[in-house]
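Pasting two entries for a bug report.
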Amino acid sequence: MQTKPTFKIEFVALMASLMSIVALSIDALLPALPDIGTALGVTDASDNQLLITMIFLGLGFGQLIFGPLSDSFGRKPMVYFGFAVFVIASIVCVTTNNFEVMIIGRIFQGIGLSSPRTIAIAMTRDTYSGDFMAKMLSIIVMFFILVPIVAPTFGQWLLDIFNWQAIFNANLLIGLIIVLWFWKRQPETLDAKHKIKFSPSIFITGTKEFIRYKEAVAFTLVSGFITGSFMVYLSTSQQIFQEQYLLGDLFPYIFASTAFSVGFATFTNSRLVIRFGAFNIAFYATIAFASISLLYIVLFHTGHNPSIVVLMVFFLMQFFAVGFLFGNLRSLAMEPLGHIAGIGSAINGFVSTVMAVPIANFIGSFVKTSVLPLFVGFSVFGVLSLGVFLWLKRRRSPA
């Protein structure tokens, strides 16, 4: 751990870029979901949501592989191996004519991309700690959020000029450039003396060690609740704006505005977290997240959709709260796990993501003619998250 932590712009940019390959593979594809569904013979439009949620399933399971392996063999080799899996899965996606094979390809894309996503967080934990780590993660997420702002527009542009396969090909090319940059410029952050000798038992011992830290477990659960809620929006947003509001042409710009709200919050968090602390900011953001969704339910409990302006006000407020949660929750969970940063990041990511996928699939199945089920999901998991925070506050209070 550095005694005087310093801000390194290239490190931030590289970590954000590694994570952005994930965002690009998800968000750039959103405008193309109807075209892919049509090309592969999908009859129920809600099935297209699987193209989004299943990549998260792969992300969850892949972290269990690459996180522990990176503790034994180093961070950088795992990034290269994960990207190779992503390349093969991408080729499957662009060459298949079968929807089920496409879903399998998306799962393996997620498995491959879990490597740069997990390793970026582990490398940040290798390099920083405490509230400064929360600050760095907030800045990394802020840069990373720039991708969801532009990705749907980028995907729509490729769709208009070429076809949906071009989106996969462009993601591959951008990913290759990032990995080459990573190979050339980023040193290994795991010291040889901190490497854990590989053994299948490290998965068991690492999990036991993770469970010892109750706060890490608690913050991981909250991450799962919030990630699941956000994933519902990711998987249904195209359907909401194109089918319920008939605003398909404006979808990339609407999506960009919500992504900007998250990004602005993460930027604000990076300025405030050292002063107020990650725990306090995340606690009040959770109160806001739950309150905003409950207010929507009270006002629009009949299920009739409000005007697009009113809906966007609620979305922007909701995701502004989310922006204060993502980086802080991950940082708070990772804080006591510096000695097992690889497997710690893996378990944190695995549990939160695998929790999120069924949450997203279940709630998303109700988002057909109304946005109300989305906010019901937000409120339920916002209240559950708040309950965990209240338990943590009591646990931290002196007797």
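Entry 2 (this is the one that rendered wrong in the viewer):
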Amino acid sequence: MNFNLTELLRYQIALSLIKGIGPKLARNLVAYVGDVKEVFKEKESTLAKIPGIGPVVARSIKSSDVMARAEEEIDFIQRHQIKAVFYTSDEYPKRLSYCEDAPLLLYIKGDNYLDGKKVLGVVGTRKASDDAKINCEKLIGDLAIQFPDLVIISGLAYGVDICAHQAALKNNLNTYGVLAHGLDRIYPSLHRNTAAQMVEQGGLITEFVTQTNPDKPNFVKRNRIVAGLVDALVVVESGVKGGAVITARIASSYNRDVLAYPGSVSNELAKGCNYLIKSNIGGLIEDAQDLMNSLGWEGDKNHNLVQRIIFKEFNNSEEEVLYDILYKNKEMTANELSLESNFPVSKVSASMLSLEFAGLIKSLPGNAFRII
């Protein structure tokens, strides 16, 4: 990075660190004085007269030590090959740039393919049920067949978020995790390995400088970035007070499409999705085809969503037949599989055990099986 660019970045980072100045006010301030450098060079008396600034904030600008802190951050991002993208840059994500409260500055570790043709947010509860994980994996797997350049955005949290990222990686899609802290850490630390893979196949994004803890208010700020980066947001499973519902409301306020999986009225983890659907914030979907119909996405007509591409050789033709039947029906008993396949129950049971060991299906009580 040459001297002039480093100097400019120092002012950009410093502006983002001034207390009392949010993204909207900062944009107005830069527009008023004409340049980010001038914010720090302008007289205090002049700054105080700018609408929204006043004498207190003007004094904060002139007396702040944010320049030294900005230099520390520049040293970190240069050592760790992190991109710092200011809102005026051509590299700033186009979708996010249209949101009036979008961050002044984004730190991106990895590639910057955030302006892809189709960008989908997938979020939900940290306590995801097996059904939610299955729905999430199947949705992303099916969409990957139709749209191999699809980008998946989520928040790297437990539950639905990490399921979405891992499903994207498994299906060779770029995926980005939006963080509620600086890039000097990964939270939760359990997701460190997945985060490392994402840097090679997407990236990590934050508006926070290093030494920023993942405190509660930061997650709400993080949610608005998730909402602003996407064409549409899918809520797989969420309680009424879940962060996913907050993200959905923000996405709706940004005129993004919101979609949600319905659930049982007695399930606390489904009440958030049901609320979104009932209040007309989110449309109801049950699979990838519903999403495509709702968003008007036309996929590859040479692929049928019920014909999943399996990058695994089956041990025999019986396994392939049984897997295809189960894939179409999602969940079946051994007897039902036997009737539809004309295989004896003993052969069905042996084949399903092999498929379970391969990680393609899951066994359930009552000698039943479910696709993964």
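Dev reply: Rendering is fixed now. As a check, the viewer should reflect this: Confidence is low (pLDDT under 50) at residues 305-311.
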